[in-house]
Automatic annotation (TrEMBL):
The protein's name: Adenosylmethionine-8-amino-7-oxononanoate aminotransferase
Keyword Transferase applies: yes
Entry annotated with the keyword Transferase: yes
UniProt GO MF annotations: transaminase activity
Species the sequence originates in: Neobacillus ginsengisoli
Family the UniProt entry places it in: Belongs to the class-III pyridoxal-phosphate-dependent aminotransferase family.
InterPro entries: Aminotrans_3 (IPR005814), Aminotrans_3_PPA_site (IPR049704), PyrdxlP-dep_Trfase (IPR015424), PyrdxlP-dep_Trfase_major (IPR015421), PyrdxlP-dep_Trfase_small (IPR015422)
Gene3D superfamilies on file: Aspartate Aminotransferase, domain 1, Type I PLP-dependent aspartate aminotransferase-like (Major domain)
Alphabetically ordered keywords of this record: Aminotransferase, Pyridoxal phosphate, Transferase
Membrane-spanning residues: none
Signal peptide: none
Length: 461
């Protein structure tokens, strides 16, 4: 078919031409010209079991033939119950009820609304403000965008956003509060924590409904884990001021960081965990939230048991069938064990690259969610200018060479700071890791040549 004639798609970037993918197999995607791409970022950290897993496709087809759609206002399906039970059992002890949505933004939107209804029904009607964190991402709907702190995504919609508050998330590599990590930890005095309490008191605790955070900051900062003890203190503050703690595991859930949920590693029980992406390993639009018994009991005791919310496609049978089949594959292929084996290997290989290329200033993350901070010159800590689009350029070169990574900008202050996320499917092999790191190595070499050419051009101009 002629390319122009079929181009009715409202592309992500209307000025860009995108390769057409015809199929995928394992960690590889293939385009219509037969070019092969190693998917080193699982799409958007979603295709966690790789491509072409027949058992998931078969389960979806079977469910579609049996009952493709029922409306959860009137009916439920066995697959819905089975998947909810599987997820509920993976979650911390007191988080047992699972609510499904079609995407992570909707999951967070639902969590923010549930927090608000919970307080209202319990006789705390003033509680409505959400505290989020700068350089964190919770989605693109107005509520989730308002709670998030992605400066570039927020700017275009500033007049439409809700009046939510934000604190800085702990980015110890470049502390936004100007503190030194060792000093902070030694004194057990983290400014990022004192700032949360100060913000709550300034807003008035009686007005604060929820605090929302990613356990490991994903797309906006490039896989930044929290300092030890941070979330325990956040939990304490939320308890003290009756604030619902929402942990956004849309990117980190289902084994990505080496445990079913990253929440296990931060050692707390949130009130709500939101999830997405990995729940169906990208085979269907599926996401949701897992809710603490306390909130569910509140809904039962203080109201008519109804969450005043809902979507047509909540608990869509074909999507939950995909989720259930994905859970079987995670289990059958011992995917969690593989993450804990390949994660450290990937980090070691990337640290080798760090020795070789002075553009890499930091490697961080957990499991197979690894971030790499990029600077112009590591020795002098010279940052790239955002206009250089360093991470995107590097990823473009890698794509030419046959591997795709997840580039990001704004990790330092929302505008400055370039990073790449390396997050292959969780069943990746050592050989595939070697292949992706070797491609990245070659991409850095070409990137360096291009920068040199640009610099020579600048000087001779
Ligand atoms: C942590 C986090 N929360 C929420 C979202 C939004 O999810 P979705 O794009 O499925 O709406 C994302 C997506 O990247 C995410 O990484």
């Amino acid at each position: 078919m002629d390319r122009i004639k079929r181009d009715y798609v409202f592309h992500r970037d209307l000025k860009k031409d995108y390769p057409i993918i015809t199929h995928g197999e394992g960690v590889y995607l293939f385009d219509e010209n037969g070019k092969k791409y190693l998917d080193a970022c699982s799409g958007a950290v979603a295709a966690n079991l790789g491509h072409g897993v027949a058992s998931i496709g078969d389960a979806m087809a079977e469910q579609a033939k049996k009952a493709a759609f029922v409306h959860t206002m009137r009916f439920e399906t066995n697959v819905l119950h089975e998947l909810a039970e599987t997820i509920g059992k993976m979650a911390p002890d007191h988080l047992n009820k699972v609510y499904f949505t079609t995407g992570g933004s909707e999951a967070n939107e639902s969590a923010l609304k549930l927090a608000r209804q919970f307080h209202r029904d319990a006789g705390r009607p003033q509680k409505h403000i959400v505290i989020g964190r700068w350089q964190s991402y919770h989605g693109n709907t107005i509520g989730s965008l308002s709670a998030g702190g992605d400066v570039k995504r927020r700017h275009a919609y500033t007049p439409n956003l809700l009046n939510y508050a934000h604190v800085y998330s702990p980015y110890c590599h470049r502390c936004p509060y100007g503190r030194q990590k060792d000093d902070c930890l030694a004194k057990e005095n983290l400014t990022c924590l004192t700032d949360i309490e100060r913000t709550i008191l300034e807003l008035g605790p009686e007005n604060v409904s929820a605090f929302i955070a990613e356990p490991i900051v994903g797309s906006q900062q490039g896989a930044v884990p929290p300092p030890p003890g941070y979330f325990e203190k956040v939990r304490e503050l939320c308890d003290r001021y009756e604030i619902v703690l929402i942990i956004d595991e849309v990117m980190t859930g289902f084994g990505r960081t080496g445990t079913n949920f990253a929440t296990e590693q931060i050692g707390i029980e949130p009130d709500i965990i939101t999830f997405g992406k990995g729940v169906s390993a990208g085979y269907a639009p599926l996401a949701g939230m897992i809710v603490h018994d306390r909130i569910i009991n509140g809904l039962i005791q203080n109201s008519d048991g109804k969450f005043i919310h809902g979507y047509t496609y909540s608990g869509h049978p074909v999507a939950v069938a995909a989720g259930l089949a994905a859970m079987h594959v995670y289990d059958r292929d011992r995917v969690l064990e593989n993450v804990n084996e390949q994660g450290p290997y990937l980090v070691d290989r990337l640290l080798e690259l760090k020795q070789k290329h002075s553009y890499i200033s930091d490697i961080r993350g957990r499991g197979l969610l690894i971030g790499m901070e990029l600077v112009r010159d590591c020795e002098h800590d010279q940052l790239f200018d955002p206009s250089e689009k360093a991470a995107e350029t590097l990823n473009g070169i890698a794509m030419e060479l046959g591997a795709v990574f997840y580039p990001g900008t704004g990790s330092i202050d929302g505008i400055k700071g370039e990073h790449l996320i390396i997050s292959p499917p969780l069943n990746v092999t050592k050989e595939e890791i070697d292949e992706m790191v070797n491609i990245l190595d070659r991409a850095f070499t070409i990137f360096k040549e291009q920068l040199r050419k640009d610099e020579t051009y600048e000087i001779t101009k």
